[in-house]
Amino acid sequence: MSRILIIEDNDDARRFMSLALQGEGYDVAVAEDGEAGLQIQRHAPAEVLITDIFMPNKDGIETIIDFRQKFPTVKIIAMSGGRGTGNVDYLDTAREIGADECLSKPFGLHELLTAVQGVIAKAKQP
Q1: Taking the complete model, does pTM exceed 0.85, yes or no?
Q2: What is the bridge-based pairing of β-strands 48-52 and 75-80?
Q3: Judging by DSSP bridges, how do beta strands 48-52 and 3-7 pair with one another?
Q4: What is the mean pLDDT of each run of 10 residues along the chain (126 residues)?
Q5: Phi, psi (deg, nearest 5) at residue 50
Q6: Beta 101-104 vs 75-80: how paired, if at all?
Q7: Of 86, 126, 79, 123, which Cα lies nearest the Cα of 101?
Q8: Which DSSP state fits 98?
């Protein structure tokens, strides 16, 4: 089964996603911010990254950029509860810089699993 890294600063959201994905048989690692997530990825690489956009220390946009540069084959799912301000939609920005899929919070178990299964299926295509 695929290894998934969840980077999310909200304890409840991180726990929900981790338990849900572990229940489906995935190997899951978690981090509270992008910097911690990069450290985990260096030592125990994941095939899929799920990252929040708004976090302290290193936000999701910076994290996506770093992952695309350092780990280009990782499939990335960006998530956010805030669509943006003014003319900026952060999920659109995430997609433009390399996210393979985006989820708007709040999302349910079905949406999470569908997104994860979708990016894993894309990774296996020639």
Answers
A1: yes
A2: parallel
A3: parallel
A4: 95 96 97 96 97 92 96 96 62 94 93 96 81
A5: -115, 115
A6: parallel
A7: 79
A8: T
Question: In a 10 Å sphere around its CB, with 0-12 CB exposed, 13-18 middle and 19+ buried, how is residue 101 labelled?
Answer: buried
Chain center to CA of 95: 12
Contact 6, 30 (CB under 8 A): yes
Q: Residue 40, class by beta-carbon neighbours within 10 Å (0-12 exposed, 13-18 middle, 19+ buried)?
A: middle
Contacts of 90 (CB under 8 A, 6+ apart): 53, 54, 60, 61, 80, 82, 83, 84
- Listed by start position, the domains of the chain span 3-124
Residues counted in the chain: 126
Contact in structure between 6 and 28 (CB atoms under 8 Å): yes
Tokens of 17: 């996603």
What top-level class would CATH report for the domain 3-124?
alpha beta
Element (H, E) at 59: none
